[in-house]
């Protein structure tokens, strides 16, 4: 059928009611958001953001309400979609922005694709990877993997992807979203090593929309975390308190979930796998820890300093 591109949509969307089908690849995926309120009677008040791209650039796509339970888990980073009967809206200005792996990619930030059950009822088709043709010109998913030795030189809030062997995972902890609210964030601390430094990655992992992965992070698993943000305490000793925290677009993968993921082709991921083959499993097992209370950043040694 006659296709359109994201670039053409941006130029012509105001003068059209119906749009030609779109062929796009998912580059980023946000966590699922629940926006239900007691006074509003919505059956499925869910929303999820995706960043999708074709040969002309990248745009946000929003999955609404009952389409979320139906499609969210099937729409992975790297998935190719054929979209028909979608709506175009002006962009929501306050949403978070992932950092694209390809810094040269054009971003269409004024509008977003809206996928709904009705008005109009969107038709979504997933194209299997083996049927994707090179002449469609869809961009590949690109990453920004760093090694532990590179971390100390990165600025606060820098976005990156990491892979490591888990040596410590803490218990799940809760933090209030707002001071007197009843909603909590669920998170856990983890350490992962990649052989490039004596120090581990210190990872603050908030529960994303992947409970099956979040609950099964164990020592000795190969952990991949994407779209992580660098956090460094710029006041005290900067090198001692550097850690990485998840963002709204972070994805987490552990051993058993890596097969077929786009990052398996990345050079730094391949280097890490080579390094793990040189390690003795028994030696690493002796150094692993699980559970317990993990205060971080650590308080000073004596009470006066504190």
From TrEMBL:
Domain of life: Eukaryota
GO terms of molecular function: single-stranded DNA binding
One Pfam assignment: RADX
Coiled coil, from the record: none
Name of the featured protein: RADX protein
Protein's organism: Nyctibius bracteatus (Rufous potoo)
């Amino acid at each position: 059928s006659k296709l359109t591109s994201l670039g053409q949509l941006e130029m012509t969307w105001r003068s059209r009611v119906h749009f030609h089908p779109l062929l796009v690849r998912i580059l980023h995926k946000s966590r699922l958001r629940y926006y239900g309120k007691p006074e509003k009677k919505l059956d499925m008040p869910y929303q999820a953001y995706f960043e999708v791209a074709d040969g002309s650039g990248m745009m946000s796509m929003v999955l609404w309400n009952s389409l979320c339970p139906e499609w969210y888990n099937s729409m992975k980073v790297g998935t190719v979609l054929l979209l028909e009967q979608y709506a175009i809206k002006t962009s929501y200005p306050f949403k978070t922005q992932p950092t694209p792996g390809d810094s040269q990619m054009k971003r269409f930030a004024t509008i977003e694709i809206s996928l709904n059950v009705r008005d109009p009822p969107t038709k979504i088709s997933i194209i299997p990877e083996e049927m994707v043709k090179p002449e469609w010109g869809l961009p590949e998913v690109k990453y920004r993997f760093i090694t532990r030795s590179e971390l100390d030189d990165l600025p606060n809030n820098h976005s990156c992807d990491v892979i490591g062997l888990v040596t410590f995972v803490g218990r799940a902890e809760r933090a209030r979203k707002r001071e007197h609210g009843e909603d909590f964030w669920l998170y856990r601390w983890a350490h992962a090593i990649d052989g490039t430094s004596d120090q581990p990655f210190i990872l603050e992992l908030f529960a994303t929309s992947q409970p099956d992965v979040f609950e099964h992070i164990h020592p000795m698993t190969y952990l991949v975390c994407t779209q992580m943000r660098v956090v460094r305490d710029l006041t005290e000793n900067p090198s001692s308190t550097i850690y990485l925290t998840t963002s709204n677009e972070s994805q987490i993968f552990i051993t058993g979930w890596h097969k077929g993921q786009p990052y398996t082709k990345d050079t730094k991921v391949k280097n890490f796998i080579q390094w793990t083959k040189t390690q003795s499993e028994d030696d690493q097992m002796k150094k692993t820890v699980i559970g317990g209370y993990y205060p971080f950043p650590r308080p000073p040694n004596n009470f006066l300093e504190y």
